[in-house]
Amino acid sequence: MNTQLKTATPPDDDVHLIVVQDEEVIIEHHPEDWIAFALFWALAIIVFLQFFTRYIMNDSLSWTEEIARYGLMSLAFIGGAVVTRKKAHIAVELVSNLMGPGPMRSALLALVDFVTLGFMGLLAYFSVTIIERMHTQTMTVFELPMSIVYAGVGLGCFMMLARQIQVVWRNACDGWRRAPDVTDQIHAD
Known about the structure:
Elements: H1 31-56, H2 63-85, H3 94-98, H4 103-133, H5 147-173, H6 182-185
Helix pairs in contact: 1-2, 2-5, 4-5
């Protein structure tokens, strides 16, 4: 009987279970980024002022709650333009991920882009009609027309529409081929 004990060799120092690579950080300067940045910090100051006057001074300012609500509405739609530019909207990509690269997948991705473009166009159109209708109503605290509030929403809708047009143009130039997914690059051992 051959009963030799096999000794385990130590693993190489070059073998890693998790490989992490830092991605280059790109700072972009687009108009919607700066508008969202300014609105965010204005909202932070207004909400802090509301908290301070209500709970510390025990005498709340009446305008802070209303202006914070209107600012948040505008911030959501202008932030939508940022997300549209980065192509980071929430999407269900199951069908396109199951399809292999080819003309059917490209047609599906083109359809999704054009449906999104149509939706953004309708959103921009209806924002104009809402701005026109809200011109006769005034804000609760200030004697200003509500169309000013909805103008921020309309601005965000038109910015989303413009960014979606750019996305459709870029995707059309690429032939609606999506970049390879991270899971396609990882091979199971």
